[in-house]
Amino acid sequence: MSKWPLSEPMRRALALAAEAATVGEVPVGAVVVKDGAVVGEGYNLTRAEHDPTAHAEIVAIRRAAEALGDERLIGCDLYVTLEPCAMCAGAISHARIARLYYGASDPKGGAVEHGARVFDQAQCLHRPEVYDGLGENEAAEVLRSFFAERRQGT
Question: I need a surface site. Which of 2, 16, 28, 142 has the fewest CB within 10 A?
Answer without folding.
Answer: 2
